[in-house]
């Protein structure tokens, strides 16, 4: 008895849906590993700062957030992929700028 005309197409669609589900699962696992590594970096930063200074420095998260926002903003700009590199340098430069501004204001108030 011959198969129905649409039966082969349905089998192919069913096979493709399993493939898409595996791809989606793999993508979600990789997304979980990526966000987990970001959380680990946050935790290590807080731990390192707290162990040295014995105070909790919440500007650590603020600087990280500003760097993420700069990366997001510059990636959509004409910089393209170079926006990732430019935005990634913001968290490294910002603490130095904040230290300069904080030192100048504290020196003025002490004088």
Number of helices: 3
- Binned, the helix content reads over 70%
- Give a short account of the largest sheet: none
| Portion in strands | under 5%
Mean pLDDT: 77
Count of the domains: 2
Question: Can you describe this structure?
Answer:
This protein is an all-alpha fold. The mean pLDDT is about 75. The protein has 3 helices and no strands. The protein has 2 domains: about 10-55; about 60-105. It has helices at about 5-55, 60-75, 80-110. The longest helix has about 45 residues, at about 5-55.
Note the main attributes of this structure.
111 residues, 84% helix, mainly alpha, 2 domains
Short summary of the structure?
This protein has helices spanning 7-53, 59-75, 82-110. The chain is mainly α and 111 residues long.
Question: Helix and strand layout, with pairings?
Answer:
Layout: H1 7-53, H2 59-75, H3 82-110
